[in-house]
Amino acid sequence: MLKHYQHFLTVQFAVDEINKDPQLLPNISLGYQLLNNFHESRLAVENSLMWLSGKGPTIPNYSCDRQHKSMVVIGGMSSTLSMAMATLLGLYKVPQLSYGSFDLLLSDEVLYPYVYQLGSRESTLHLAAVQLMLHFGWTWVGLIISYDLTGEQFFMHLKEEMAWNGLCLAFTEQVSEKIKDYDYYIKFLARILGSSSNVIFVYGNTDSLKYFSELLMIFEFYGKIFVISASWDFSAYSTDEMMSNFHGTLIFSHFKREIPGFTDFLKSVHPLANPEDIFLTSYWELAFNCLLSEVKNLNLTYRQCRESLTFADVPPIYFEKTIMELSSNIYNGVYLLAHTLHQMLQTEAKVLSEFLAYPLLSWKLHHFLKCVNPVSGIKDELCGDGPSTTAETYDILNFRSFPSKIWTEVKVGEVIPHEKVLSINEEDIDWPEDFPQIPSSTCSVACGPGFRKQFREGQPICCFDCTSCPDGKISNKTDAEECMQCPEYQYPSKEKDRCLPRTVNYLAYEETLGMILAFAALCFSILTTFVLRVFVMYRDTPIVKANNCSLSYILLISLTLCFLSSLLFIGRPTPAICILRQTTFAIVFTVAIASILAKTITVVLAFRATKPGSKLRRWLRPAVSHSLIFICTLIQMCLCGFWLGTYPPFLEMDTHSEASFIVIQCNEGSLVTFYCVLGYMGFLALVSFTLAFLVRNLPDTFNEAKYLTFSMLVFCSVWISFLPAYQSTKGKAMVAMEIFSILVSSAGILICIFVPKCYVILLRPDRNTLEILKNKANP
Question: Which CATH class is domain 2-119+310-383?
Answer without folding.
Answer: alpha beta
